[in-house]
């Protein structure tokens, strides 16, 4: 990174615009910002920091008062910085948030913060050519190009007053946090968390497998009907399986015996049932033959009835045809009479004529009606023309009245169009202002939401801090208890070893086979189980502490993000500004909403004028055309009326005369058809009656009544025939049964005892079924036990490697997180930070040795802290004069400055090496030189001269007069009463 130009306006003590040309100042590689105390030297460094990150280092960044108190109300506070990063030259422009007097009325209004980034010489790939204007986008882009955040920048590039000495005197925790931000060791913390999470997962898996093993054990015990023992589980399982196998063998023997008894009882029952069935068949055959003899007379009547019905069926069809012919003749005769009456109703006298005459009369009348068809059409046209004449009279009057109204409407339209156009231009101007106000409203709304979430975020940080404190106390108590128990166990270790000794066995300590005076456990002694329980409690407390710390970091991150976005603005001020802007937006929106209506009304008015002009012309033309058409139609209707009067005769009009002729013709046609149908039906009736006489004689019937009396429905005939055939079949079956050989020697009076045999067979069957059920239950139990034993064995085999793997993972996780067998109590992240700190100490020692003329050097130690706290980040100073290692806090003011400067430069070198060394073309050191004597100042200046190697530019900020003589190129800042001014001399 190399700075080129800085411009500040109304910023800090600078009331007017001030410009710093870093290219000119840094041409020699070293320059000085000199001025009186309070003149604004550090403000220039604050301006550089604000342009890059939107914040300033140290306590000044917490106050957030960046605007000059002497600035004019309308003058904009602004910082402009031109710089080059990774070969890309850019221009950054930022304005802070501040309050200014309102332009109208009393009070102040808030000026929102702004930021922009413009590329000088072309935008890099992936960035818009027009630059960036959102504050968050500018911040992300700058941080991405620099490769460091604001904290890292202030520590390695911009070394502000008192800030770079803080690292020297910091405690281990504070130094660890700063190193984490500088070197980005988050990935190592993620590795630690990964190990912890993996251990939790493995523990859950091990617990799940253990629960699965317990479930299979419980299931096996449930099937076995016994309580599972706590020890010798395998022997118990084998004994249960053997007992179940013995039960199956006994059940099989009982089942075979019961089945043999059942088979014997079934054979006896079958023999008795066969004998009983033969006696029953013989008795049934005798009873059926007796019943059939009693029914013989009734069966003879059924046969006669069936024969008569068969003869009547041959004549039934002819009777039906004759009946239908008589019905059709009666219907035709009635229809003929009705049609003759209809013709007489029309006034025509030809109803008694034959068919030929009726057809002739209908033809004559049809020709007469056809001749009147053309005149009917003319009569309809005459009526239409008369109606049109009346409508034309009304149309002429309406057209003339409409023309008068249209002429009156056209008079005031041009003036109205002009008024609408003026109102539309006012609405357009409001639309231009509305876009800017909407953007401002959106920014204020986002800020108001952030302000509403701020109390909750602060409360979350407080709650998280309380939880961390409680978890830390709990962890420390658990740790202290574990150490106390371990100490007690070590004190009673002799007794614990003595408990495992036996006469004749070698002592594991001294090897002796005799133990004359065994140690006895003292009161309050601790065994291995108690110590293991304490270790487990400590591990759980530590996990809760880690979870609370993670939650706290998340809450602090969220709070910092809100504070950064709000930048000190309060909710009341934001809401007041938002209400004001909303009111202005609503007022402008109301005007803009009228724009579409005004444009539409203007277009409508213009269109209305054109439409009215066209309508006026059309109304005048319509009146003229209607009058001409009316005169033409009057002449045509008068001539047509004379022809129609001659044709209608005695009727009201021609259509009435033609309708009457059509009515008579239709009556003649229907009578002709009815008379023809009656003649045909009469001839068919005579033919059917002759056929009926011949059929009666052939079937042996004298009259139709005899046929109808003998006739039976097909269902009745079929039922009688079925009864006859069934009776014959029953008789044959009964006689065949009596003739069967196996019934020979059987008497209807024989008695067979089937009930006692059935009872014996039923009891034998029930005993056999019970034996089968017992065997099946025993077999099922054996199968279930075999299956469960296999699964129980598989579960036991699966859990053993998981236990070994978890023990290894548990120990490794403790080592990675600085516990367990980790003697230095250093986590992986602390180990990496310790390595980086060691590099920093080596780099800083080179410069500190030169500055202190070989007296002081930095000493890094990875020893564990006091009371078991983590180590690795201790940093002290070795005094070569006394040969002792001293705390950095014991150094004098000048020595502290030298040590802090050397440490800051060493830290910058290491960070530069981490980032590729491409970011440190420019370096600033603010104050501290006043504590040095002349000789030491020479040494420090030599060190700073060495920093110029490779094109680096170093800027010093100091009021020490001697530096003015040593550095020829300088920037002097003079204090003014109403603000400060800049004067550059090269």
Summed up:
The chain has 24 helices and 16 strands. The chain is an alpha/beta fold.
Can you describe what's shown?
This protein is 68% helix and 9% strand. The chain is an alpha/beta fold and 986 residues long. It has a domain at 1-147 and 916-986: P-loop containing nucleotide triphosphate hydrolases (Rossmann fold). Helix 9 (233-294) crosses helix 19, helix 11 (355-371) runs antiparallel to helix 17 and helix 13 (413-491) crosses helix 16. The longest helix has 79 residues, at 413-491. The protein is flat and about 165 Å long. It starts with a strand and ends with a strand. Residues 975-986 have low confidence and may be disordered.
Descriptors:
single chain; 16 strands; about 1000 residues; 6-stranded mixed sheet; about 10% strand; Rossmann fold; alpha/beta; 24 helices
| Overall form | flat
Low-confidence stretches: 975-986
Mean pLDDT comes to 76
Oligomer: single chain
Rg measurement, Å:
62 Å
Helix proportion of residues, in percent? 55-70%
Number of helices: 24
Overall CATH architecture of the domain at 1-147 and 916-986: 3-Layer(aba) Sandwich
Class of the domain at 1-147 and 916-986 in CATH?
Answer: Alpha Beta
Strand count, sense and barrel status of the largest sheet are: 6 strands, mixed
CATH topology of the domain at 1-147 and 916-986: Rossmann fold
The chain-level structural class is alpha/beta
Sheet with most strands: strand arrangement = 9-13-14-3-15-16
Strands, total number = 16
Q: CATH superfamily assignment of the domain at 1-147 and 916-986?
A: P-loop containing nucleotide triphosphate hydrolases
